[in-house]
C-alpha cells in the first residue's frame, strides 16, 4: 500500500511541473505589464523598459520561469499590485475563509446525504423515495449559480432569514459573538452548496443499498436472524462507507470550482472572490498563485480519494 | 508438406509489479508448443481450463501476439504483425468462437455479419454478395429468411451455425474452432458438429479443434494433442491417445470421462483411484521442478509423449520434434 | 464447392424475402425511443416545449435589431412588466427584458448546442480510441486526461478569456470545449474497454476489418444509446456553463445578451428584490429548460435500456 501511495505521489510531480509551466506561460500571455500605471501614472516608456529589464522581464522565458520557481520555493509568491501586499499573506487570509466554508459545506453534505440515501434505498419505490429522487433530479440539472441566486433571493432577501453578504457582521464582538456571526454567515451558502453536492452521494448510496439488499450476504444475514436494523447498520452501511468517504476527496474539485460562484454571489471574502477581483484588476501575481494552488489542491483531493479507494478495493491496491 | 506448422510457440503475458511497475514475471500461457496440421484433417487440442489451449488458438489466428516461436503456413513464415501479410493469412485461416452470442455483433443483420469477410477479402458486387451469403446460409441449414434478422432472434445452435457460415465465407484452408459447442445443449451439439463435418467433407478444410470435452474430440478428431500448463504433454492419433496413453496426465484425464455403466461402477471407481494414486506418486517424475512438462519424445510413428528424461533415455528415445 | 448457378434465386423472390425480413426485423432504437415518448405524456410535452422554444427564439431573434435593442433608453428606465408595451419590463438601461431574453436564449442555447456537439464528439472519439487500443496509447491518453482533470476548470476558462483579445461566441465555445469532454471520454472509455473484449470484435479482426472501421462501425453502434443519453444530459449541463461565466462577467462580450448577463442583474441588491423582472425570467427559463432537457434524457435512457434488453434477448 505504501509503495502505491509513494508511486502515486511521484506521478504527481511531473503533473505539478507541467501545471506550473502552463500557469507561468498563461501569465506571460496576459495583456499589459505589471508596471504601467502602478508606480507613477506618468512614468515614461523608457522608465518602464528600465524597470522591466532590472526585473528580468526581458530574459528568455525559461530563465524567468526558473527565477519564478526559485522564488516560489522560498515562499515568495510576489506582490499583489492591487492590494500592495505580499501574495502569500493575501491568499493566507482568504484561504482561511474558503477553508471554513468548504469544510462546513462538506459536513452539511454528509449530514444531509447519508440519511437521505440510506432511507431512499431502504424504502425503495415508496413515497419518500420518490420525493428524494425528484429532489436529486431537480438539483442535479439546475446550474449551480442559478440555485445560489434563487436561494439568496428567497432566503436572504424575501424571507430575510440569513445575511446576504460578507463573512462576518461588523458589529460582532467577543469570542463567541465572532464565531456565531461567522457561522451565521456561512449557513446559507453552505446549505445551498450542500444541497447541490449531496446529489452524487445520495444516488450512489441509494443504488448501493438497493444492490446490497438483494445480495447473497444480506440474505444470509437475514436467514441467520440478524435484525433488520442491524443489517442496515452493520452490513450495508459499513460496506458503502469508505467509497462514500472517497467522494470527499473528489468533491474538493467541485467545492473549489463552486467557490468562485458561491463567494462572488454572497460577497464572501475567500479565494474565489479574490480570484474574480484579481481578474478584473489584472492582478497577475495573485491569479497565477491561485490557479497553481487550486490545481495542487485538486491533485491532493484526487490523491486522497484514490488512497481511500485503494484501501477499500484490493484490486487497486495490488496494481 | 503440412498445411500449418506451429514451431515452439510462446505467448507470455507480463506481470508488472514493484515500485516502478516493471515487468517482474511472466504468465506463461503458452510455453513452447509445436504441432503440425495436415490439409483436410481435424487436429484436436485438449486441456483443462487455464491450460493455454484457447490462447494457442488465438495466437495461431493472430488475435494474440506470440512472444516467441514461428507459425508456418504452407511452409512460409507468417509475420502476424504486418497488416498486409496478416490479411492474406486470415483469408485462409478463420475462427469460430465459443460464445455464439458475443461473437455476432448485436447491432448488425445476419447478412452484414456473414458478408463482412467477403467485403474485406473479395470485392463482390452487391448482387453476387447477397447470393453468396444465401449460399453460405444454405450450407449451414438456414433459410433466406435469416438474412435480415438480428443475432438475438436465433437460438444458440443457429447462431453458432451463422458463426460457422461466416468462418467458411472466404473458403479458408484452416478453421480454428475454439470450443464451438461447449456453450450449447447436448442435443444441439451433435447437430453443429455434423455441420462442421459436412463442411470438411465438401470443402476439404482443416480444423484446429479446441475443446475440453474428450468425448466430442474423439468424435471429431483424427489426431490430437493434450495440453497442460502451457505445454503439450502428449500428441498422437486418436488411437494412440485413447487406447495407449503414456503420460500420467493423459491417463488421469481419460479416466475422468464419466461413463454410464452401473454394473461396473465399483471397478471403475477402483480404477480411477488407482490412476489418481499413480498420478500423485509420479507427479514429480513427470514434471520438472517448475511444474512444467518435459519436451516431447517420439515413441512411435505418430505418437509423442513428454516423458521424463530418465524414462526417455531408458527407452532409447530422443526428442525429435513432432512429425 | 457448389457453383453459383446452382444456388441462384430469382430477383423477384429475393425482393419478396427482403421485404418480409424487413417487416420481421426488430424495431430500430429510434423507433423504440419514439414509442417511449408517445407513451410518456410528460416526456412528450417536455420534448415539444424544448423544440418549440428553440425554434421560437431562433426565428424571433431574426426580427430583433440587437444593437438597437442594446441602446440605452432613459425613458423606459426600469419599466415594470406590461408598462409602455414592455412585456417583461425593462432594465436600468431601459432595454426590453423580453427582447434580451429572446436574443440571450438564442445565444446561450446556441453555445450550449455547439459545446455539446464539439465536446461530445471529441470525448466519444477519445474514449473509443483509448479504450480500444489499450496499452501504450491508452496509458498516454489517460495521463493527458489526468492532467486535464487536475486543472481548475472555471479558473482556466476565465484566464483564457482574459488572454484572448477579440473573442466571440465561436472562440468562447471552443475554449469551453477544451475542458468539457473529460466526463464523456471517461464514460465511453470504460464501456469501450468492456465492449472490445467481446468476441465479435475478434471476429471482425480475423475478418480483415481495419481498426478504424471496427471502432466506429462495430463498437460505436453498440454503445450508441449510451452516447445519446450522455449527450442529452450534457446538453442540459452545458447550458449552465456559458450562462454561469456570463453571469460572472467572463462569458459573452458585453453588449451581447445572454441568459447569464440577465441573471447578473440580480447582483444589485435593489434589482434582486424590487426589480425582480430584470433577472427572474431568465433564471426561471434556465430552470425549466434544464429540467425539461434532462427529463428527456431520462426517458431516452429508459428506452435505451429497454432496447438493450431486447437486443440481448432477455
Automatic annotation (TrEMBL), chain A:
Keywords of the record: Cell membrane, Membrane, Transmembrane, Transmembrane helix, Transport
Can you tell which superkingdom this protein's organism belongs to? Bacteria
CDD domains registered for this protein in UniProt = TM_PBP2 (cd06261)
State the Pfam families in the record.
BPD_transp_1, BPD_transp_1_N
Q: How does it sit in the membrane?
A: Multi-pass membrane protein
Q: Can you tell me where the transmembrane regions are?
A: 9-27, 99-120, 132-155, 183-205, 241-266, 286-312
Q: Which residues form the ABC transmembrane type-1 domain?
A: 95-305
Tell me the compartments it is located in.
Cell membrane
Q: Provide one Gene Ontology biological process annotation.
A: transmembrane transport
Report the GO terms under cellular component.
plasma membrane
Question: What family does the Swiss-Prot or TrEMBL record give for this protein?
Answer: Belongs to the binding-protein-dependent transport system permease family.
Q: What is this protein called?
A: Oligopeptide ABC superfamily ATP binding cassette transporter, membrane protein
**Gene source species:** Liquorilactobacillus ghanensis DSM 18630
UniProtKB/TrEMBL annotation, chain B:
Q: Name one GO molecular function term.
A: ATP binding
Question: Per the annotation, which location comes first and is thus the protein's main one?
Answer: membrane
Pfam families assigned to the protein according to its UniProt record, in alphabetical order: ABC_tran (PF00005), oligo_HPY (PF08352)
Q: Which family does it belong to?
A: Belongs to the ABC transporter superfamily.
Its membrane topology is listed as: Peripheral membrane protein
Ranges of residues in domain ABC transporter: 4-254
**InterPro entries from the UniProt entry:** AAA+_ATPase, ABC_transp_ATP-bind, ABC_transporter-like_ATP-bd, ABC_transporter-like_CS, Oligopep_ABC_C, P-loop_NTPase
- Entry-linked Gene3D superfamilies: P-loop containing nucleotide triphosphate hydrolases
Organism this protein belongs to: Liquorilactobacillus ghanensis DSM 18630
Protein name, per record: ABC transporter domain-containing protein
> What PANTHER family would the database entry show?
D,D-DIPEPTIDE TRANSPORT ATP-BINDING PROTEIN DDPF-RELATED, TRANSPORT ATP-BINDING PROTEIN
Give the lineage.
Answer: Bacteria, Bacillati, Bacillota, Bacilli, Lactobacillales
Keyword ATP-binding: yes or no? yes
Where it sits in the cell: the answer is: Cell membrane
Provide a GO biological process annotation. Answer: protein transport
Q: Does the keyword Nucleotide-binding apply?
A: yes
Name any GO cellular component annotation.
plasma membrane
Q: Which domain of life is it from?
A: Bacteria
Q: Which UniProt keywords are present, listed alphabetically?
A: ATP-binding, Nucleotide-binding, Peptide transport, Protein transport, Transport
